[in-house]
Structure formats: structure tokens, C-alpha cells
Design brief:
The structure is a homodimer.
Chain A (H helix, E strand, L loop, with lengths): L2 H14 L8 H11 L4 H12 L8 H16 L3 E14 L3 E7 L3 E3 L1 E3 L11 E8 L2 H6 L2 H4 L3 E4 L12 H17 L4 E5 L25 E4 L1 H12 L5 E6 L2 E15 L8 E7 L9 H20 L6 E7 L7 H9 L5 E6 L7 E7 L5 H11 L5 E2 L12 H5 L4 E6 L4 H4 L12 H18 L15
Parallel strand pairs in A: 5-6, 6-7, 7-8, 11-12, 11-13, 14-15
Antiparallel strand pairs in A: 1-10, 2-3, 2-9, 4-8, 5-9, 10-12, 14-16
Helix pairs in contact in A: 2-14, 3-9, 9-14, 11-14
The complex binds zinc ion (2 copies).
The site of one zinc ion (ZN) has 5 residues of chain A, from α9.
């Protein structure tokens, strides 16, 4: 960035940010530090995971979770608390079992992937062909795959920013369709996860045009290790598989919305939230009870500190896991409202380590006080503008809404992600509090600063 | 110990240990250090867990494991390799599922305990009564339990020596009978384990006289946490349970025996080994493929170094998990043979940290060279004679056979013990090698030292 641009930015920031309307740094610091003693985020996370537990998109449990959320948000004093429903496709997991029948008979631990087809009622049995990457599967001659069970094994490494999930996750997202089009009768993938436990990682995959749905499942990592070893023996390997998963029409899902009305209706909404639904295997503690809990606890703190300039809206999105249905429904329903800023918490409950932005360049100086107020929490700033976002806020972002992210440490996130092991005991209350402090800081400043952070054009790809 | 006794011990040791027959310390050190590069123990552990996998006592897989063992032990050059069969009761796990039906509907992850009864085919549903310890269950008025599902939750803490397993494990071993006698329709215990994963810990329990078999299961630790939280809400908690476990007659099991014949048939046998069977949920890597692998690898090293004075016998015991049937059968069949010493490896594959003895007092000086040769491996000596033993060698020990133990670090053993997570990936090859080095050291000395280590009287309680 040149000095000239920097000067222009500073001038623009000065113009659009009358200091009088902003919150004093000392007040932000006081709110931030008080939030380090927060108990509300734990209370919400504990309550939702205990009193509802697993809450698959479109399930009766997700509906109970919406009612639970409404009651909780009203009790906390939020305004305009309501549910906005929408329809989602309903996929039923059913049962899944698999065993190596030759050369070394033994059972395998696995879980069906979202939208997996069933086997015939009596199961199917076929020889296994293994691939060590998505690229190897894509390069394979269909003649070698036809009639076989495809196995794709590629271990994902842990990373603070979770970046391997993008490329490695393609095996789950796209592998089933590729295998099906090449004539596979089923596909088993190594779990997209970094753990070493017999807890397979589920997750959604969508059939591309022309791909006939086949059984698509993830082996737990130790089982993928085992199948690799068995294949390395060089003898033909046969697996018998029985899966009863099925698509079964549509069901109701919904978003739960709660507001802290601002003093100036024209100043736009600061939208924060996470997603209410979880996969069915765990209780969705880190994915994403903690996200709705952290953002709600922070909003509650700002509400209690006096009416903010801007309306703060907390959204507990429904049906994120099966295809971002809640985010899309919200963006459609609220396209005409002015969103000053949006931010989502959906990467667990470990410490926030970085602050990222996706705002218009002229608004960058207004990010500086946020970065400064976050620094005492051990949070660094991502110098590259444009790297913020969230799955449920994707459609908002595409429409030009500016975004920020409080990036959580994801080193152990993919140990637990989409597994039965996503349970309350994995959450460290101290790290959860640091999250609340970071979000409280973010809201204290952005809900009280009239700076226009957007629109952001061109929108992110 | 008085100076007088010490002097007597020294004299006795000098008498019974002609130095000429013993192995030179330099040779022991060379064998020990070479074993730190061992690959055989890994090869056996990898082979048994991959090519057989789970091998429940009495199962067809355990029979395959015996054949696998015979082939492996013969290929390694052991003599007198054979199987000695015996009958065991056959318990079939079947399926088990449970869900909280009120007040917060959600499913629970659990596993039936050995010898658990089934529910009626349609399942059973009952209110839950919780206890936080075995003592609380024992103290409870049967009127409060009758017709209910008992839940006993008591978290086990990790410990290097695994000592909490004795007292906490009583909940599993004795809890079901106590609950049944008080009129419970089923019992759920918190897994006897130190982990935080959705992998329940199975294990055997035996019905005491007059206790009617009922469904008896272990909840995974996160599920026990959850049920505790649900109960703490203070509303009546109902669980629906379906279990198809059953006793189904007897099956064949067996021990696999292999010798390294010694130069002096009258010098007695040094018996080492572990158990071949595993629970059905995991592949029995740490319990106890590693035990048979470590002891076999060490025996092979001594065999290859030249004929020892004493016969070294390696035993891969069958049906340990369901009630020490293999150890009892061995002791019966070999009661007339002279066992100079016995030692078992059955506490995982982590580093040996301590050397323990249970020999006659006069033989203690002969333990000193062993302790000295083990010290460079980071192994300390348990100063209290009488604290060695092993589950499969229990009957031998009761008959007066002296014992030593190479105590492994059990800090993470009960994270994995009796779970689906007991798989090869949990074994650290370097720690496994340290085990082989320790056992090689032990065998190098004891198989070449004519000192009489026993009989030990009175036998251990
Ligand atoms: Zn999520
Ligand atoms: Zn064992």
C-alpha cells in the first residue's frame, strides 16, 4: 500500500467516523475484560448440548432446539425473537455396517456421508480398489473401478487455520460422484479428520449431475489405516457392506433471530451468529453450539451496557451442515435490510488467534481500533483484507455485505468435527471465555461506530 | 531388613549362583542394546492385529489367531510349538442401543459388559437412579432401586501404575450383581477408563450366586457425563434399552506354547508371555498383541544368541479377558513341570519404568544384576519384594512359582483398554523397542543363572 492511499484512507475514515458516536477505548477494554469472566456462553453451550443433544438439520430435535433457543433468547432480554422457517431435504442415516470378508475377516467402523444411498437390503459385497488421493481416483481408468468398492485414503494434517480441510475435504465432497460415474458400487473414504479414534467423521456430499447415488461412507481413521495395511498385503480384498440410509422428502427447518435494537435504524445491522443444527452423531458442542453461545453472550453484554448505535442481530442458523440452507433463507428473506457488517463463529471453541477482515478499503482504518482492542487477548491481525467470511453468511457476503472473522485455533477442531466425539467435555471454559471477550470487543466497537464498512465490491468469489 | 539377614542372603546367593554359569554383564548389555533396534515385536503386533484383528475368547477369530501364532512361532525357529485347547463359556455381544426418552430425548453410546443378559426383544424402558460410587450403590435401599435402571458413575483417574483400576473397576466387576440383587432391571456404569471419547470400555463381570443376570452395560465417558448432567436437572429420567447379548454354550479356546530348549532340563523353565485373545471391539493391539510380541521378540533374541541354560517358554494364553481360562488351563496341564520363574507382559506397549519381584528372600541378591542391567533403560527397581505378578500366571504364582514384572507406564493404558480404540496406531514403535530390550535383559540373565528364585512361600494372597 502506498503512502498516498494510506493518507486517503485516513481522511476517509475521519470523515465517516465521527468520534463522538464512537465508544471510548476504555469502555471497550472494560467490557472486554469483564467478558473474560463470562459464564453465559458455557451456560448456553451446556444447555443446548444437554437438553437437546444432537440436532440434525430438518429433524424433530432441530425443531426442539429452535424452541429452546427462542425461550433462552427471550429470557435473556433480546427483542424481536422469532423463528423463520424453510424447507430442507431430509436424509435419514439409518444403519451402516461393513466387514472385510477376505482375506482377513473383521468388521470396520464407519459412518454414512450425507445423502449416501443405501445398499440392497441384504447388503452388497465387492472387491476393494484403493487410491491414495482424489487425484489418483480422478486419473483412474473406469474399467478398473467398475463393480468395485472404491477406497480413497488421504490423511488430513492438523493446522491452526484448518486450511487442509479445503483440499482434503474434496475427497468427501466430490469423491462419491467421481467414483459413481466410474462405475463403483460404493465408496469408502478415510475420515476427513485429524484424530486417531474409532469415531468416523460424517459430512455432506452432493451428487453431481449424472452421478447415480451409491453408498458413500467414511471409515474411522484407525480403520482406514487397517484397510491400507490389508490392501498392502497384495491379496484381493473383499468387503461386505450394509447401509440403510435414505432420502425421504422434505422437512421444516428454520433460523432463530434475535435483536438488540440500535438507536439509529438507518445505521444498519451488525449480524453475528453461528448455526443451531449439528450432525446427528455428536451433540454439536464445538459445531456449533459454542458459536451461537459465544456470539449470543457477547451481544447480551453489549445490550446490558446500554443501547448501541446499530442494531445487533444474533442469528442461530438452521440446516448449515447439509448445504447452508439457513444462510440462504436468511439472505433471501432479509435482502432489503441494510447489513452494516456480518460475522460468524463456526470453528469450535478454542482461542481466537487472529482477526480478519473483508471490508471496503476505505474502512480499513476503522478496523484498527478493533485490532488494538483485541491484541491484549493474544489476537493478531490478518494483514490481508478479504479473508473473512462464514458459511452461513456466504450469501450476504456475495451481496456485498462486509465481513470480519475472529479466527479460532483449529488445531484440534478436525479431531472432533462431524463425529460422535463432538461433545461438551471437549470445550475448555477458559478458551470459551476468551472467545466471548473477543466478540464483545468486536461488537462494542462496530455497533457503536457509524463508519460504513461496505459495500464490498467486487464480492468475494 | 537387618544386617544379619542381608549377610545370610549374600551367602546364600553366592552358594546358589556359581558365577561360571552366569552370563557376562557385557554380553547382557550388548543383547539389551541390540534389542533397542528390534523390529520383530512390531512385526508380530502389526501382523496379529492386521491379519486377525479382534479375537474374542472362544471365537472363530481366536482359533485363527492360534493358527497364526503357531505358524509365526515355528517360522521364528521355536521348538515344541503347539496348541493346548480347553473349553470356555461363549458369550455373544449382539447389539446394544439406548436412548434417553425423557426429559431430553437423545441416544447414548454404550457397550455390553461380558456376560450381560439381553433385554426383552422389544427392549425395556425404565426410570434411572444414579449413584456416584460403588459404596453408594451398596448402601442404597433396594426399595429405591426395584424396577429401575441403575447408573453408577465414578470417573477413573490415570496413573502410571494403573492402581485406580482395582478399586474403580469393582463397579464393573461387582456392580451388576449388586444392582440385580436389589431389583434393578438393568445397570449402566460409567466406562472404567480415563479417556474422553465415545468409545465405551467393555470388560468381564460375573454374576454372583443368587444374582439374576440383567442387562449390564458401560456408557462411554462423554455419555456418562451427559447422563450425570441430565439427572442433575432433577426431573425423572427414562431410558429405553435394547440388548441382544446372550450366553450360548461352550466353545474351544487354547494356549499356544513355544520353547527355546535349555542346556539343563533340570534347571527349570523361565516362562514369559502375554495373552492372545482380545476383546471384540478393538484389534487388541495394546491388550495384548504387544505383550505376546514383546516377550516373543525377546525370547527369539536369546535363542539366537546361543542355547541358554534354562528352557525359555513363551506362552500366548487364550481366553484371558473372560476369566483367566488360559492361565488356569496352563497351570493345570503343567503342574508337574519345574518353573524357575514366570513373567507376563499385559499392560500395553508403553515404556517399562519399573522392575518388580516376587521371589524368595534368598534370591534377592540374584535380582541385583537384573536391576543393574535394566537401569540404563530408565527402569527403576521396586524395593518391595512381593509385588510382581500377572493375570495369566496367577495360578502358577499361587503354586509357589517365583515371578518378576517389568511394569509398563500405564498412564494412557486405560484410555484404550477394552475399547474399539485399542488399535495399532496407539503403539509407539520406540517404546515397544524399549520393552523388548528390557525383556531381553531379563531373559539373558535369568535363563543363564542357576539361582533358585523360588519356591515362594507363603504364596501371594
Ligand atoms: Zn459448523
Ligand atoms: Zn490384557
Amino acid at each position: 500500500m502506498t503512502k498516498k492511499i494510506l493518507a486517503a484512507l485516513a481522511a476517509s475514515a475521519a470523515l465517516s467516523s465521527p468520534l463522538a458516536a464512537q465508544i471510548a477505548p476504555e469502555k471497550v477494554a472494560a467490557l472486554r475484560d469483564a467478558a473474560l469472566k463470562d459464564d453465559l456462553a458455557w451456560d448456553i453451550t451446556e444447555g443446548l448440548t444437554t437438553e437437546i443433544g444432537p440436532r440434525q438439520a430438518g429433524s424433530e430435535a432441530e425443531a426442539r432446539a429452535r424452541d429452546w433457543a427462542v425461550e433462552k433468547l427471550k429470557a435473556l432480554g433480546f427483542q424481536n425473537v422469532h423463528i423463520e422457517t424453510f424447507d430442507v431435504p431430509w436424509w435419514e442415516r439409518g444403519d451402516a455396517s461393513a466387514e472385510i470378508t477376505a482375506p482377513f475377516p473383521q468388521s470396520l467402523t464407519l459412518a454414512a456421508l450425507g445423502n449416501s444411498a443405501a445398499t440392497p437390503a441384504k447388503g452388497l459385497s465387492a472387491e476393494v480398489i484403493g487410491f491414495d488421493s482424489m487425484a489418483a481416483l480422478e486419473a483412474a481408468d473406469p474399467a478398473t473401478i467398475k463393480g468395485k468398492i472404491v477406497f480413497v485414503t488421504h490423511r488430513m494434517q492438523p493446522a491452526q487455520d484448518g486450511s487442509p480441510y479445503g483440499p482434503v475435504g474434496q475427497i468427501r465432497r466430490a469423491g462419491p460422484s467421481v467414483a459413481s460415474k466410474k462405475g463403483a458400487v460404493a465408496i469408502l473414504i478415510r475420515s476427513i479428520g485429524t484424530d486417531h479414534h474409532r469415531v468416523p467423521h460424517t459430512g455432506v456430499q452432493a451428487w453431481t449431475d449424472g452421478a447415480k447415488p451409491i453408498p458413500a461412507l467414511a471409515l474411522a481413521n484407525p480403520d482406514a489405516d487397517q484397510l491400507e495395511r490389508v490392501l498392502k498385503r497384495g491379496k484381493p480384498v473383499t468387503i461386505a457392506l450394509t447401509v440403510t440410509a435414505r432420502m425421504a422428502g422434505t422437512r421444516k427447518s428454520g433460523n432463530v433471530i434475535a435483536d438488540v435494537p440500535g438507536r439509529d435504524p438507518n445505521a444498519g445491522i451488525v449480524l453475528v451468529g453461528g448455526h443451531l443444527d449439528s450432525w446427528d452423531l455428536g451433540t454439536g458442542a464445538i459445531d456449533d453450539a459454542s458459536g451461537v453461545a459465544i456470539t449470543t453472550a457477547a451481544a447480551k453484554r453489549i445490550m446490558d451496557a446500554g443501547q448501541p448505535l446499530r442494531t445487533i442481530r444474533v442469528v442461530w442458523f438452521g440446516s448449515e451442515e447439509i448445504g447452508l440452507f439457513g444462510g440462504a433463507a436468511y439472505a433471501r428473506a432479509h435482502a432489503k435490510e441494510k447489513h452494516a457488517l456480518a460475522a460468524e463463529s463456526d470453528f469450535g471453541a478454542d482461542r481466537v488467534w487472529r482477526f480478519s477482515t473483508a471490508v471496503k478499503p476505505e474502512a480499513l482504518p476503522a478496523m484498527k481500533p478493533i485490532a488494538e482492542a483485541l491484541a491484549p487477548l493474544g489476537i493478531v491481525t490478518n494483514r490481508k483484507n478479504g479473508e473473512a467470511g462464514g458459511s452461513d453468511t456466504d450469501d450476504l457476503q456475495r451481496s456485498g455485505v462486509p465481513m470480519v472473522s475472529l479466527n479460532q485455533d483449529g488445531t484440534r477442531y478436525f479431531d472432533l468435527h462431524h463425529t460422535a466425539d463432538d461433545t461438551l467435555d471437549k470445550i475448555d471454559p477458559e478458551q470459551l471465555r476468551q472467545n466471548v471477550a473477543a466478540w464483545t470487543t468486536l461488537l462494542a466497537i462496530t455497533a457503536n461506530d457509524p463508519t460504513e464498512y461496505g459495500p464490498v465490491t467486487p464480492p468475494r468469489e
